[in-house]
Amino acid sequence: DGGITQSPKYLFRKEGQNVTLSCEQNLNHDAMYWYRQDPGQGLRLIYYSQIVNDFQKGDIAEGYSVSREKKESFPLTVTSAQKNPTAFYLCASTRERSYGYTFGSGTRLTVV
Amino acid sequence: GNSVTQMEGPVTLSEEAFLTINCTYTATGYPSLFWYVQYPGEGLQLLLKATKADDKGSNKGFEATYRKETTSFHLEKGSVQVSDSAVYFCALSDVTAGGTSYGKLTFGQGTILTVHP
Description:
With 112 residues, chain A is mainly β. Chain A has strands spanning 4-7, 10-13, 19-25, 31-37, 43-51, 54-57, 64-66, 76-78, 87-94, 102-103, 107-111. By secondary structure, chain B is mainly beta. In chain B, strands 2, 5, 6, 10, 11 and 12 form a six-stranded mixed β-sheet that branches. In chain B, strand 7 and strand 8 form a beta hairpin. Chain B starts with a strand and ends with a strand.
């Protein structure tokens, strides 16, 4: 079955470390997105990409970086510059805006 | 910019009660509108959608009508079940500045629904 796979499901980061969250899709979708979810704040857009080798900043890109070397993959790196990285991170993809977005099951990142 | 406002929760209902979760939006142009549902510890699942004014999206007994005159997309269900307990998100998708067909989703803050037997 087609879908989006996020890994790992849980991730622990020490202060000052960079960590990378994986997002892979086999839906043949062109556009991919990273959202951050905090309690009571809904979802906020970090980065998005509509084509390979191109991506744009969302509303809260500071302290994050991405790459899009393959259509299927859109990894997110949470850098040490992100001061409050503890959150639930969701990856999504779509083939067209009226179609709707498919979400992965999320990665919960905790700073220890 | 685009924005979505949902009624504040949490919403607590008894099984078989009628559900309404209000959603209003601000956007330029003609956005597509969505309701997503999130169960504990999981990602979001698309519940229903509407792509133009007066469209009604429906799925699993849930309905929502795209009302452009009131900029609203309220979610309703006639008889809720315990299994409907989840967080519900209203969202809109608009075209990017580049005019591509992919857009960006803007979410409301989510409404927690708890249904008791």
